[in-house]
Amino acid sequence: FFPSARCTRISDTMSFASLRRLRPDEVPAVRRDPVEPKARAAAEPIVEAVRSEGEPALRRFAERFGELSPGDALVYRREVELKAAWESISQEERNCLARTAQRIRHFARSQRSSASEISVPIPGGEAGHTLAPVENAGCYAPGGRYPLPSTVLMTAVTARVAGCARVCVASPRPTAVTLAAAYIAEADQLIPVGGAQAIAALAYGAGPIGACDALVGPGNMYVTAAKSLVSGRVAIDMLAGPSECLVIADGSASPAVVAADLLAQAEHDPAALPALVCLTEEFAAAVDRELAAQLAVLPTREVAAEALQNGYTVVVASLDEAVAINDRLAVEHVELHVKESMALARRLKHYGGLFVGAGAAEVLGDYGAGPNHTLPTGGTARSFGGLSVFTFLRTRTWMRVDDAHAAGTMISDAKRLGEMEGLFGHAAAAAARLASAPNGTGSPSKRDVSTKRWDTTSDRLHFALPKKGRIAEKCLQFLKASGLEYDRPARVRGRGGTCPDHVHDVSMPCPIGPSVSTWRSCAICRSRSSSCRLPTSQSTWARGTSTSASRARTSSPRRASAWSARWLSASGAAASPCSCRRSTRARVPPTTQAAASSHPSPR
């Protein structure tokens, strides 16, 4: 795999000389495929058999691989077998499991509290997302070479904190401690089956085992292959491969501590990867001597020695090179044994779990300091994060639109996009919303007043509008589109025959409170100071805004100026007639102006 590397093979007596040396440019950057072809070929018929046959196939494979005997229980229940196992272990073991579960639970709860639901305004309504857990969680814990009750805690506790209604654990040949861990983790049941058959049972259901919505947890290559086969049918956390650890060390690090951490990683699996990046060859040699000494007395030295053959040491000129190597590898675990560990930590981009400082041993992460130990491997930390409560949560988006008028532009855009994509059913569905908008076009007003509360009047109202022109047409279109009725246009004679106006009698309620706009000339004839007696202070022209409340009609029309004066009087403004006798001027007190400014002007 590393043809240019110097590799010292492990002898039959398990003696160890040194980790192979790699130059920085020899460090591999290629991701490892987490699913081996031979494992997929072996797992596929097992998964298909359990999917189609259910419990009979599950029992058949479990008995073939020595996990069950004929007549054995397929499910261990929480209040029976799991509780009995909890009571059978020592008090010291119970205390250890309880404390570890509590630390994991505390960290997971903090993660859960960091995620919140949102709601944001959109045109004509609002949108947001809610967070909901999956109902049924399946948690796998390896039980082959070493039983791992810590993985039971990491997976089941996290699922329960996320809010899953049912948690099922699968672990082959479980020990009493594994069953006790499932009990303190609040798992509902445990199936004493492993491998691809267990993954298939959790995904599709088998007899008393209900189908799960999410499957998490590490396993051997057959478990990983089975997870890849059922992903899409259920959610999975990741496709994890052999464990990895990269130690970055400078001259301040202890060779003995670094060697201990590398061996802790190596004893996981013969395929594990322990790696060291350091600044001097002298430090690398010191670590090699410690590895040889500690390996000689390690009970698991056979597995660890084989894994050390996969490992290597890279001597770099600076920590900048170490950062580059880390980000190229994106390994599962990264330990920083350097003097300025926090400063270096901020520079790293890709890793599954980071352990900052010599005191933050990777084994503390394995055994329940809080963060989860189920992490991405094989370079996939560039794309995935580790197991957490978020693995069991679904983000569900929602939206509400109850004002098609205000959402007009958004709806028009949706209609146009449907046409651009050739999806005319989409365009028609959007057009149906446009038709329901008040003006039939979906064009929104400049200001949405649909949520405002207005006082209304049932009197017949009069609006003074120019006879011709675009503004007059727009005003009439607006009144008509708003569902208003207007009739009896009456010509109002202008001074000198100029600027004839329409007076439209509008049969609908209208707000009493005025909305005011600043003008420097007569609002109708546009005459300036000599024609209109403008006050020296700010002059305003009162304009009304209508609502969609119930309609009422009266018989006698009123001049627009008279209605405006009455309206202004009701609002506390002092009205004075313009010299052209076709509008009403008002000097609005400061308090009235402030109140009026909160009302949006009508279109």
From TrEMBL:
> Which Gene Ontology biological process is one annotated for this entry?
L-histidine biosynthetic process
Listed Low complexity bias regions: 532-581
Question: Which cofactors are named for this entry?
Answer: Zn(2+)
Q: Which GO terms describe its molecular function?
A: histidinol dehydrogenase activity; metal ion binding; NAD binding
Q: Which domain of life is it from?
A: Eukaryota
Cited NCBIfam families: hisD
Q: Which organism is it from?
A: Emiliania huxleyi (Coccolithophore)
Official protein name in the record? Histidinol dehydrogenase
Does the keyword Oxidoreductase feature in the UniProt annotation?
A: yes
Q: InterPro entries per the record?
A: Ald_DH/histidinol_DH, Hstdl_DH
Residue ranges, annotated region (Disordered): 532-603
Q: Which UniProt keywords apply?
A: Metal-binding, Oxidoreductase, Zinc
